[in-house]
Design a protein that fits this description.
It is a single chain. This protein is α/β, with parallel strands linked by helices and 266 residues long. It has eleven helices and nine strands. It is 39% helix and 20% strand. The protein has a five-stranded mixed beta sheet with strand order 3-4-5-7-6. A hairpin with a 2-residue loop joins strand 3 and strand 4. The protein is globular and about 60 Å long. 28% of the residues are buried.
Length: 266
């Protein structure tokens, strides 16, 4: 995606949240984005999961398979980030505003005060999308979260615009979507939606070599497009098969880890 964008004249990247999990990317992914002149990051729901688990590390319910799943994925990411990168995750803002040639853009992952939920899926009414603008005078809002390209106006007589670039995907046969935003010195702007297809086999090979937790479920998502993040039965089968709960207990009870976790408490 970055290669395609640069070939099309992109000079700067804005990242709209959900940096890590449930895939294999960790410090290498963040390094890639920073080195590619990604100047703007906002906090997504997966990013919120990461920071919440670290802040609330001693509240885990081992009887809940999905909690073991989230905690285990956070463990994988945490162990593969530098201290500075972990702090970076805690510093991510919910919203950012960017102004180019007098045109102001409001960036968030979902709603400005809520990075999860279905408030802004495509079929929602205009009043839902108007909530993005409640605390900004920007006339263009850009968000992520729903993984679908969107370009819409709030309503007749209300020229505020909503942009969603889609999502970078590595699932088999699925387009990887992003958008190129162009702003002229005159203040006119345009958006171009780009669609490319990745080689999912490379991602699966990387996931195996990096010993990605829940690889079985991740592989199935890559091949069939079925999402398993709330598949309690499938998650529990993996928890038993790979003894994830035991690994998690050792990690959370390690005194050196507890010292690190406490540094990030609210």
């Amino acid at each position: 995606m970055i290669k395609d964008a640069k070939q099309n004249g992109v000079e700067e990247f804005w990242f709209l949240g959900d940096l890590f999990m449930p895939g294999p990317g960790t410090s290498d992914l963040l390094d890639l984005l920073v080195s590619s002149n990604t100047t703007t990051f906002v906090k997504g729901n997966w990013d919120g999961c990461f920071t919440s688990v670290i802040e609330e590390y001693d509240t885990i319910n081992y009887d809940n398979p999905e909690e073991i799943f989230i905690f285990t994925l956070v463990k994988y990411v945490f162990e593969n980030l530098s201290d500075d990168q972990i702090q970076f995750m805690f510093n991510l803002p919910m919203t950012i505003e960017k102004e180019i040639y007098g045109v102001k853009f409001h960036l968030s992952h979902n709603l400005p005060n809520k990075f999860n939920g279905g408030d802004l899926v495509v079929e929602r009414p205009s009043k839902n999308f108007a909530k993005i603008f409640e605390n900004t005078d920007a006339k263009i809002a850009i968000y992520g979260h729903i993984h679908e390209p969107v370009l819409r106006q709030i309503g007749i007589g209300d020229e505020r615009k909503i942009i969603n670039p889609g999502a970078v995907s590595t699932t088999q046969g699925k387009d990887s979507n992003y958008a190129i935003l162009k702003v002229e010195e005159s203040g006119t702007w345009s958006v171009e939606y780009r669609h490319i297809v990745h080689d999912y086999s490379e991602v699966l090979s990387e996931s195996q070599s990096k010993k990605l937790p829940y690889y079985d479920l991740y592989e199935d998502t890559m091949l069939t497009h079925v999402i398993h993040t709330h598949n309690a039965e499938g998650i529990n089968e993996n928890n038993i098969k790979y003894k994830y709960a035991n690994e998690l207990k050792d990690w959370l009870n390690d005194e050196n880890n507890k010292i690190k976790f406490e540094q990030y408490r609210k």
